[in-house]
Write a structure and sequence with these properties.
about 140 residues, mainly alpha, Four Helix Bundle (Hemerythrin (Met), subunit A), about 5% strand
């Protein structure tokens, strides 16, 4: 990659900023990415990236802040894909922290956003014995 991507902390600050931009934070992005990677069907970036970027897929020019944002998110997708395919036991979700408390809701909301993109494809999984693997995620949603 020719230019530096943002750190995940920088990305979170850029996206959530004052909280009024319609963007989601890194924890929700990580949950969304996890469901996209682990899901039962392949999703192209134009299908799921708008969930991160206030409902739009931005036209980016290389080197711009918008391009760096997209590249940072796509980098996380690549990292998660590699981890889940090669060493899934080492995957660690990016949970938020608030006053010493681990906040899992944002991650699970992101995961369920991804599920919702192709909900019908997930039905066989939810109807099978494998649904027990999703129980922690499903029980964490508000």
């Amino acid at each position: 990659m020719s230019q530096a991507i943002y750190t995940y902390d920088e990305l979170d600050e850029i996206l959530r900023g004052d909280g009024h931009g319609g963007y989601v934070g890194v924890s929700a992005i990580d949950g969304l990415v996890a469901s996209v990677v682990a899901g039962p069907v392949h999703l192209e970036s134009h299908e799921w990236l708008p969930q991160v970027l206030a409902g739009v897929f931005p036209v980016t020019i290389e080197g711009t802040p918008e391009h760096r944002v997209v590249q940072t998110v796509l980098n996380r997708r690549k990292e998660v894909a590699e981890i889940l395919s090669q060493r899934p036991e080492t995957y660690l979700p990016m949970f938020m922290h608030d006053d010493g408390r681990v906040v899992i809701e944002d991650w699970t909301i992101g995961f369920m956003l991804g599920v919702g993109l192709k909900a019908n494809a997930w039905i066989p999984l939810f109807a099978s014995e494998a649904r027990s693997m999703l129980a922690p995620i499903l029980s964490a949603n508000p």
